[in-house]
Amino acid sequence: MSKMLPTKIDIPLKIRESLVAILTDRLADSLDLAAQAKQAHWNIKGPAFTSLHKLFDDVAASAQSYADLIAERIVQLGGTALGTIQHTVAASTLLAYPINAISQDDHVNLLSSALAVYSMNLRNTIEFATYLKDQVTADILIEVTRGSDKWLWMVEAHLVK
After folding, report:
1. Domain span at residue 77?
2. What is the pLDDT of residue 1?
């Protein structure tokens, strides 16, 4: 982890360091989710192409905005937001997205699985932030989870035949 920068925020340094460390993992997950949704968006094939192409693009855009919220919180806490591709690959907890996925069923299954893990990790991080008594970080993550759960619901709706 990089050196924490000074700030007048009223959260002790050790707590800020812990929060930055776990938020850095969620930032990597967010950036990875955005890239996975774009992979699905670009490569989808099947009868529901038009609706899924748009849906996957919307998921990618939302994941990118979630990354921005999380990165800004990291910096507010005195950390450095690590958003490079190299760091994202090394730190993401999402499974790697197979580049040979083509069918809409493959992409729906893969993206819904990534969204499920993403939301689960967010919930665990909300619990951690709450335990550390940082309601602001918890609130930001609740907002992100609300969105990711919505996208999970919308993607999973395409699993029903």
Report:
1. 20-159
2. 55
